[in-house]
Amino acid sequence: MAPGAPVSPTNNSALAGNWLLFGSIPPVVATFPAAVGTSSLVAEFDVVGTKVVASATIQAACTSQSLVGATFSAALKGTMASDGSFTVSTPSTSQLSILTIQGIAPTATGGSWSGSYTFNFTSTLGQGCTFSQSGPFTASSIADIDGTFTGTGSLYVGSVKTPVTLNLNLTQGGLLYSLLGGTPVESRLALDGSVQMQGISCFNKGTSAAGRPSLVDGSEINTSFTMDDGSTLQLAGNLVDQSVTELSVNTLIVSGGQCSGTYPVFPPLQLQR
Hints:
There is one protein chain. The chain is mainly beta and 273 residues long. It has 2 domains: 17-142, Lipocalin (Beta Barrel); 146-271, no CATH class. It is built from no helices and 18 strands. The strands form 2 sheets. It has an 8-stranded antiparallel β-barrel with strand order 1-2-3-4-5-6-7-8. An 8-stranded antiparallel barrel has the order 9-10-11-12-14-15-16-18. It is globular. Mean pLDDT is 85; it is low at 1-11 and 32-37.
């Protein structure tokens, strides 16, 4: 734990956690064609006092070209009133997209709640495309990421295809670090845990890297581990289902050590009961 941590206490608001606002959990690659209004929105919320922060993934369809779509990630901030109503939105300085979520927090953990959203984005790439969506939703709970997820596959270490078993142990909630440095904050968005890899000679285990952000970011997970050879392993993945019994692995990046490199898609990891 870094000096000066932890900071603010965790609020017990029933909004804190993972939510599917509408649609289904987005796949790693957006699938289109998709009509406007048939896309999806996943968000994680944390509440401390009256402050609300969230991370979200929205899969949107282009308004002007119905066969074009994209998946966007967003960090949102806002406040909660005494009656549980809240509004979070991307910063006004955001140059990429504007996402706003309004709702009334549930009164019980895991209970559904209702709200509305607006999303606007204009791209100047190619022929240009405007994403403009809004509407009501009823949010349903997504389980916390908690447990050991295991999978077996192969990675190319140099030019050699090597069988590898990956065990990823994660707990949602803990210290959340920023890329900008500073004191970490206690957050439901944070991920903490350890990793074991059998089959790669450079290392075989690691723990969450202090000073590097590991978090659930909408429907995605991004984690960093300090390995036993001193290298850093970054793992990017994706939620697959609402019960979080499976995680996809999109990318493994090793920095430092003798096995430094980027390793592409690994088979999905299954939660061990």
